[in-house]
């Protein structure tokens, strides 16, 4: 059974920004869906008030996954830029997937998340969040040095 890869875009509260422009999250969400459909990738999606999520199977050919990751990074950068330009959100969040299958959101000030995302990829951010979730759900009382020695 294949795992799912999650792609997330952030939007403004409600479907339109205060200036009447399309929600920046919805805009890039639709562009990414179009990109995936053109490549015949099956998708699932979930849209909440401020979060646009797209899920795809991870058992796609590596070359296609690389192309999808590249397009996502490009659109995520556009999403960030549009969010900054609309200046309707003073906070942002990170989706946290728990081992029991539930999802929650960690609120992070938008300026901090923007700085972090300017130097790492969304996949790397997901890896960091997953490592933190794993450490919280499966605490290990050993120090990092002790764990490294145990692995040798």
Please, could you describe this protein's structure?
It is a single chain. This protein has about 150 residues and is an alpha+beta fold. The protein has one domain. Helices cover about 45% and strands about 20% of the residues. The chain contains five helices and five strands. The protein has a three-stranded antiparallel beta sheet. The radius of gyration is 17 Å and the shape is globular.
Summarize the structure.
The chain is an alpha+beta fold and 152 residues long.
Defining key terms:
152 residues; alpha+beta; three-stranded antiparallel sheet; two-stranded antiparallel sheet; 5 strands
Classify the secondary structure makeup into a structural class. Answer: alpha+beta
Strand content: 15-25%
Q: In order across it, which strands form the biggest sheet? A: 1-3-2
Rg over alpha carbons:
17 Å
Secondary-structure blueprint of this entry?
Blueprint: E1 4-10, H1 24-38, E2 44-47, E3 51-57, H2 62-86, E4 91-97, E5 103-109, H3 110-117, H4 122-137, H5 144-151
Antiparallel strand pairs: 1-3, 2-3, 4-5
């Amino acid at each position: 059974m294949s795992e799912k890869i999650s792609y997330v875009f952030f939007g403004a509260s409600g479907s339109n920004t205060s200036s009447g422009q399309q929600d920046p999250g919805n805009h890039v969400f639709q562009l990414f869906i179009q990109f995936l459909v053109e490549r015949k990738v099956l998708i699932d999606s979930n849209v909440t008030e401020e979060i646009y999520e797209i899920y795809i199977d991870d058992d796609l050919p590596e070359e296609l996954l690389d192309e999808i990751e590249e397009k996502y990074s490009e659109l995520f950068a556009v999403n960030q830029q549009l969010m900054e330009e609309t200046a309707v959100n003073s906070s942002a969040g990170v989706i946290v997937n728990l081992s029991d299958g539930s999802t929650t959101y960690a609120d992070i000030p938008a300026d901090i998340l923007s700085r972090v995302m300017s130097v790492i990829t969304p996949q790397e951010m997901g890896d960091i969040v997953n490592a933190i979730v794993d450490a919280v759900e499966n605490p290990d009382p050993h120090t990092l040095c002790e764990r490294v020695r145990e692995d040798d």
